[in-house]
Amino acid sequence: MATCGTRGDLPLMPDELPACAFRLTRTVTVEQLSALVPHANNVQIVGWIDEAARAHGDASGLTRERMHSEGRMWFVARHEIDYVAESFAGDEILVGTWLTGVTKTTATRATMAWRRPASGTPGWELAVDARSRWVHMSLGTRRPTRIPAADLHIYGWAHVPGPDRAHASNP
């Protein structure tokens, strides 16, 4: 099982997610399929990653609207996505996301998505394994800015990086 601040031994299954992970479920619709090959398209999968991060913030009280009113926002700097299995119309999708690392101005987030086939096949199959780096930005300066310690605690992160540390691990 993964713990907050780690990715654990991969591949994880939904019941192995860390306690701090946020979960959401969706069903693949026909509109979310690629035009020529009837599986969930890449844009939709990136959308699930973004939606899970947004929903995690919303559920924690760190809505984008709140952050905007405070003059700050998370900007994605990098997505790395491993497409492990296809997803099809009618499949149930379970997305799990959690923080795996922080610096003074960035957070690394793991996101995994599993599919449960519409055919009724029992169990989950890993479909997507992604890592994303998000930068905490000042909207006034458009430059990275320190992540408030309170934000990290809201996400279940126990250790706040000091001013002279490039990377921190969650003890």
Question: Overview of this structure, please?
Answer:
There is one protein chain. The chain is of the alpha+beta class. The chain has three helices and five strands, in the order βααββββα. A five-stranded antiparallel sheet has the order 1-3-4-5-2. Strand 4 and strand 5 form a beta hairpin. The radius of gyration is 17 Å and the shape is globular. The two termini are 16 Å apart. 27% of the residues are buried. The C terminus is likely disordered.
Low-confidence stretches: 164-171
Shape summary? globular
- How many individual helices? 3
Q: In total, how many beta strands?
A: 5
- Kindly state the percentage of residues in helix: 10-25%
Relative strand content: 25-35%
